[in-house]
Amino acid sequence: MSRNRIRLLNRPRLLASLAATVGVTTVAACGSNQPVKLAASASPSAAAKSPTAAPTATPPPPTPKPTIVAGATYTSPAIIQVENLNAARPQSGLSSADVVYEYSAEGGISRFSAIYYHQPAGQVGPVRSARLISPVLIREYGGVLIYSGSSGYVFSRMQTWATPRFEETSAGGDMFRISSRYAPHNLYTDGGRVDDLVRRAARPAVSYSLWARSASAAGGTPVAGFTVPVSPSERPVWTWNAAAGGWQRSEPDTGVFTDADTGKPEVAPTVIVMQVPANLNKDDIEDGCCTPGWEYFLTGSGPAQFFVNGTGYTGTWTGTEYAPPQFTLAGGAPAPIAAGAVWIEVVPTGNAAATR
Description:
Elements: E1 25-28, E2 35-38, H1 44-49, E3 73-83, E4 99-106, E5 109-118, E6 123-124, H2 133-141, E7 144-146, H3 152-161, E8 165-166, H4 168-171, E9 176-177, E10 187-190, H5 191-201, E11 221-222, E12 225-227, E13 237-241, E14 246-251, E15 255-256, E16 267-268, E17 270-276, E18 278-281, E19 293-296, E20 300-308, E21 311-320, E22 323-329, E23 342-348, E24 354-355
Parallel strand pairs: 3-7, 4-23, 7-8, 17-23
Antiparallel strand pairs: 1-2, 3-5, 4-5, 6-10, 9-10, 11-21, 12-13, 12-24, 13-14, 14-15, 14-16, 17-20, 18-19, 20-21, 21-22
């Protein structure tokens, strides 16, 4: 749920005619209390002697189309804000992501930050607003943020941190509105446009390597499924699907979670639940909006659960400011992380996933 306001500008009334006067006439400016001065009109006789041709409007230059490079890979990732209000489902492009973070935005609704190290296969969206966690993830992963707007507080933080980012205006033709959904759930991008934004950002190549991959480790417990307490109202259910090779997601209110691009259920080979220090930041709220936004602290360490290959493990996450988190088991060995997409569920400390 976005806290951005949509301002409707009143259409200025046409000035049908101005009386011929000598001197200066003033009218009120649209959206301003200050008068706007209009140049004095020429007398009829003077106008007849020296007619002036109406100026010809110059059309704006067309928005350049992005150059699509099929199968492009990125040395620094794109991080796209995707909403999870039920009106936004089914979303597009989450099944193409390499890493997906989920967390509570405000009012119990969750939001996704989808991370791509390669060009998405199709559309991605609905694209929605940044949250306090967004610039934190940009710092950790060294990427560029693609989003639709933010609260004033989040905007101020991104300005202070010089967060590389594109929103609808600065993205230009690299974001678009679809006609099959109502605003604000209709802002999208796609693979070629994401590729164009990554090139435009010109971020340096990242120096880290993502996690080593392994589908098993010692000390796990068989798990048929689990429920993640993202918020009191957002509790996604993940169920092991051996035939699909991963955990299949469903929502309590809308059922099986599918990708609109593929029409297939969302399946993640690895799901990680990070319990992190968190609080509601009273400064992160728009006038007239609902509740403060959640702030999550991703540096330091804390409890984690790892779900891989039908098995659950417990361990620890460790995070620093400029690198992705690392995950270890209770004995210090690296946590198992299977090949393919990794979903990271961020919850406040003390809110472990319930297994079955």
